[in-house]
Amino acid sequence: MADPRMLTDAAEPPYATGNSLLHRLAAEVWDHLWPWSRSGFQRQRTVQAAGLALALAASTAWVLAALGRLDAGAIIAWWFGWSVFEILVRLGAKPYVKDGPWWGKRYRRASLMDMICYVGFKNLLIGASLFIGLKSAGLVVL
Predict the structure, then answer these.
(1) Do 94 and 34 contact (CB within 8 A), yes or no?
(2) How far apart are CA 138 and CA 67, in angstroms?
(3) Are 62 and 130 in contact (CB under 8 A)?
(4) Which of 37, 58, 101, 104 is disulfide-compatible with 82, CB 3.0–4.6 A?
(5) Which residues are paired to 96 by β-bridges?
(6) What is the rounded CA–CA span in Å between residue 48 and residue 136?
(7) With 0-12 CB in 10 A as exposed, 13-18 as middle and 19+ as buried, what is 141?
(8) Does pLDDT of 102 surpass 60?
(9) By the 8 A CB rule, do 70 and 57 touch?
(10) Using H for helix, E for strand and C for coil, what is the string for 46-79?
């Protein structure tokens, strides 16, 4: 029977039934930082491979920013570009989002808007953390 509180069908990521709390937390961190999956590569090889290439380019941009060779506007543009592409990658590889509180174990199938919101907010937090870290280390000027 469908749960009337959920907007879309229930989904279960492979790590959702992990035995220990530490295993589940590590798997969840990995899930947030690594948007690819084996099944995604089998279904959408081109999109997934392009996503890997773009992720490498965005990571290189962050390294260049840390070395002082890229200004803040350029790194924001790279990060935005990566975020847009990550939406496509995740919809093909990990098409689910958590439903309910962050500590819960309930997941559901993601719509396009769910994925836009999830990736946008997640990457905003990651980008802000990286900018704050680089700024406090004196490596980037905003």
Answers:
(1) no
(2) 10
(3) yes
(4) 58
(5) 109
(6) 34
(7) exposed
(8) yes
(9) no
(10) HHHHHHHHHHHHHHHHHHHHHCCCCCHHHHHHHH
Whole-angstrom distance, CA of residue 71 vs CA of residue 136: 16
One-letter amino acid at 4 equals P
Residue 4: burial class (beta carbons within 10 Å; 0-12, 13-18, 19+): exposed
User: Using one digit for the tens of pLDDT, what is the confidence trace for 40-79?
Assistant: 778 888 887 888 888 898 889 888 888 888 888 888 898 9
Q: Is 138 left (phi over 0), alpha (psi -120 to 50) or beta?
A: left
Supply the DSSP symbol for 8: S
